[in-house]
């Protein structure tokens, strides 16, 4: 396995690590007070750092693959899969924390299912689709929104606010987070429609 593919796998491995620092532990009444207190005060900041590292591997694997001609079908598949898994997993964690709407996350997930379905139809005809530029832009807006939301508790504390995910304050800091997330959802819809309209032929020719 070449280096770009290893970086894609690393991105997948970092998903549970990121979530570990985002979510308090609550397992059938077992709630370690010390750990959960640490997560409430500092966990999101550590999760943000891990997530940024994971995001950087996304940029690195593509550049290395192009520079050293290491582009493979496996690499195209792993790169796209790792991006989807990373974004969806972290957004699910934000839904659990009551910071992101489940309805908006559903839009993102449904778009990914649709694109995956199109990729499967294309694969039956021997075509392996790499990520398109509009898809990369969509992913970038998602990464920016997620990183901001991860640093949001820190921004609020600096601003003198007490952060509570169940009842977070409405102010300039949280409004920016809402706007960034809405932008990434809009780009998700636009990229999904672009993908669908440009690949309708696979549906018309499908058995």
Structure in words:
The protein has about 210 residues and is mostly helical. The chain has helices at about 5-20, 35-65, 75-95, 100-125, 135-160, 170-200, 200-205. The chain is globular and about 55 Å long. The model has no long low-confidence stretch (mean pLDDT about 85). The protein contains 7 helices and no strands.
In short:
The chain is mainly α and 207 residues long. It is 77% helix and 0% strand.
Write the layout of secondary structure elements.
Elements lengths: L2 H20 L10 H35 L5 H24 L5 H23 L8 H26 L13 H27 L1 H5 L3
Helix pairs in contact: 1-2, 1-3, 2-3, 2-5, 3-4, 3-5, 4-6, 5-6
The residue ranges in which pLDDT falls below 50 over 5 or more consecutive positions are: none
N-to-C span: 35 Å
Structural class: mainly alpha
- Whole-number mean pLDDT: 87
* Helical content band: over 70%
Reading the helices and strands in chain order gives HHHHHHH
The Cα radius of gyration reads: 19 Å
Which term fits the overall shape? Answer: globular
């Amino acid at each position: 396995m070449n280096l770009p593919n290893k970086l894609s796998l690393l991105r997948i491995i970092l998903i549970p690590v990121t979530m570990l620092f985002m979510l308090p532990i609550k397992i059938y009444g077992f709630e370690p007070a010390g750990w959960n207190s640490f997560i409430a005060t500092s966990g999101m900041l550590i999760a943000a750092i891990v997530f940024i590292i994971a995001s950087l591997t996304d940029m690195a694997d593509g550049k290395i693959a192009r520079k050293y001609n290491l582009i493979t079908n496996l690499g195209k598949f792993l790169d796209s899969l790792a991006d989807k898994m990373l974004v969806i997993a972290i957004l699910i964690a934000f839904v659990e924390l009551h910071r992101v709407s489940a309805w908006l996350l559903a839009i993102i997930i449904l778009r990914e299912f649709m694109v995956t379905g199109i990729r499967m139809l294309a694969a039956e005809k021997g075509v392996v689709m790499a990520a398109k530029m509009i898809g990369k832009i969509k992913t970038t807006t998602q990464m920016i929104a997620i990183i901001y939301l991860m640093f949001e508790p820190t921004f609020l504390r600096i601003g003198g606010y007490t952060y509570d995910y169940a009842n977070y304050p409405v102010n300039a800091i949280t409004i920016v987070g809402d706007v960034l997330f809405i932008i990434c959802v809009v780009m998700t819809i636009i990229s999904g429609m672009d993908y669908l309209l440009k690949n309708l032929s696979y549906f018309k020719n499908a058995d």
